[in-house]
Design goal:
This protein is mainly β. It is built from 1 helix and 12 strands; from the N terminus they run H-E-E-E-E-E-E-E-E-E-E-E-E. It starts with 8 loop residues before the first helix and ends with a strand.
Amino acid sequence: MRSSFEFDPRSALLGAVAVVVALFGLSAMQPAIPASSGGLAVPQPLRVAGLPAGKDMLTVQQGSPLTVPDGRVFVATGIGLSALSQSSDSEGLVSIVADGLTVLVVGLGDSRSTGSLSTQQSASVFQLPQGLTAAAGSEISATTKNGAAVLFGYLEDA
């Protein structure tokens, strides 16, 4: 009886080469483990593109404007009140001012009306929509009538 299986040396050699190439490729994808760590991989700090480093995070207090440094862009992330206040309703409005122009006004806080006065029940922060930026050289600040406005954000490379 004749067997339908025949051994072809060229096919066997080609298959062996393919296995070696695949194993070599897989071994190249393995992370290097430093010998000084006792054979254990030591995690390195992870830096994700698009997320600010802690040193780039800023708060701009009312009365202390920020001039955006050359080569940087200020990205605003939030605006708020740094203190509790008792004020008229219009004083719950917090503004972002860039180069002398008001670019955004936000009403903040849990207010309870008592006649013409409103009591701010807690310090508040409002998360800003993405995309509010100030270019290098711009002077930015946050303002409110009670003097407790704070602008939050970070500096990004231009």
